[in-house]
Write a structure and sequence with these properties.
This protein has 2 domains: about 210 residues, Rossmann fold, CATH 3.40.50; about 50 residues, no CATH class. The protein is about 50% helix and about 10% strand. α1 crosses α3, α2 crosses α3 and α12 packs antiparallel against α13. It is extended and about 95 Å long. Bound molecules: guanosine-5'-diphosphate. Guanosine-5'-diphosphate binds next to α4.
């Protein structure tokens, strides 16, 4: 018997003969229409009209590592440049837990009170899109993410800091062309990325905490020197007094720093992002800064310097890539490294030989 269960002794259990399985692929399915690929002019047109979906696609293009996408992205950026620049670019940094996302949510609503649009971008070279702690992630800014005038974009996924930062800077251009007149660039205040953010924003805000005993809280002195303003968060409840004490300490510490190139004296304020206390004090400071630098001309000067900086950065990056990605150079470097380590050749002549090989390669020899 094929199926013992079909024996009359078994009651209530029957195995029926099966039917042949259905094909997995539906043979009657109509082929899906492919989304027409946009030209550079389509992208620019959509962006300038403030079309958020086109803007999002353009940012994805900027972030892509595919060479063809990069070429198109550069064309789009170049065409958007004439429409860009008309914004306040504000960098926001602080150690994890300082309250950046809570504050950005509140700051965002504050700047949008008078209309306008806000883009929140991030630089976090260590982040992977999957690990959930992504800066600029929508879920971290609940109120803002539902606001129709806010565009929130997480950090470009992990890569070299230079690469991630460049993409964020290019995204600023696209957002400005789309009419975003407030740009926040968020970063974690623990490493190198501050320098990159500092080189693309007009105002750099450092969010600090009070009451941990350690005044600088792992924030490097260099980061404090870059700050145009320090905002001590969580000044609520029992913490107010400690926040005021910390503010006094920070003011003292700032006195010891050399004057900033803008001659603006960085200020220290206390506020509570969570309880929305004194948020206007933070923004009074930022508004005053913009008024000041626009009057002195430092605003323009800094933007020009930043444009030069990014041109040089791009040149450096491309030169390095071109040099290190050549197989001949890679092989020669390995050989030379061994020779140098074995004391068979000096570091200097080894470097000279490798560069010499590179120049000959460039000449096609
Ligand atoms: P981030 O890592 O810098 O983005 O910090 P979050 O915004 O995620 O905040 C870290 C924690 O601090 C969260 O549990 C917040 O609820 C809390 N927090 C943020 N701002 C304040 C504040 O103004 N007062 C108090 N008491 N807690 C806050």
């Amino acid at each position: 018997m094929e199926h013992p269960e079909n024996n009359a002794e078994y009651t209530g259990l029957q195995v029926n003969s099966g039917v042949s399985s259905q094909p997995i692929i539906n043979p009657y399915r109509r082929p899906r229409a492919k989304r027409p690929s946009l030209t550079a002019a389509d992208y620019v047109d959509g962006i300038v009209k403030g079309n958020v979906s086109v803007l999002g696609q353009a940012v994805t293009l900027v972030e892509s590592t595919v060479e063809q996408h990069q070429k198109l992205a550069q064309e789009v950026i170049e065409k958007c440049l004439p429409y860009s620049g008309n914004s306040r670019r504000i960098g926001i940094t602080g150690v994890p837990g300082a309250g950046k996302s809570t504050s950005i949510d509140v700051f965002g609503l504050h700047v949008l009170r008078d209309g306008g649009k806000l883009a929140v971008l991030a630089i976090d070279p260590s982040s992977e899109r999957t690990n959930g702690s992504i800066l600029g992630d929508k879920t971290r800014m609940e109120k803002l993410s539902q606001h129709p005038s806010a565009f929130i974009r997480p950090s470009p996924s992990a890569g070299s800091l230079g690469g991630v930062a460049r993409k964020t800077r290019e995204t600023i251009v696209l957002c400005e062309a789309a009419g975003y007149n407030n740009i926040f660039v968020e970063t974690v205040g623990v490493g190198q990325s501050e320098t990159a953010v500092h080189s693309m924003v007009d105002f750099f805000l450092l969010i600090q905490l009070a009451g941990t005993g350690d005044e600088l809280q792992g924030i490097k002195r260099g980061i404090m020197e870059m700050a145009d303003g320090i905002a001590i968060n969580k000044a609520d409840g029992d913490n107010i007094e400690r926040a005021n004490l910390a503010a006094a300490q920070f003011r003292n510490a700032l006195h010891l720093f050399p004057p900033t190139p803008s001659k603006w004296r960085p200020e220290v304020v206390t506020y509570s992002g969570y309880f929305e206390l004194n948020v206007d004090k933070v923004w009074d400071m930022i508004d005053r800064y913009f008024e000041y630098v626009k009057k002195t001309g430092y605003f323009e000067q800094k933007r020009n310097e930043q444009a030069k900086y990014w041109m040089m950065e791009t040149i450096h990056e491309q030169l390095l890539n071109d040099f290190y990605n050549r197989p001949e150079i890679k092989a020669l470097l390995e050989q030379k490294e061994l020779r140098v380590l074995n004391n068979e050749q000096s570091s200097f002549t080894a470097a000279h030989d490798v560069l010499d090989r590179y120049y000959r390669l460039l000449r096609g020899e």
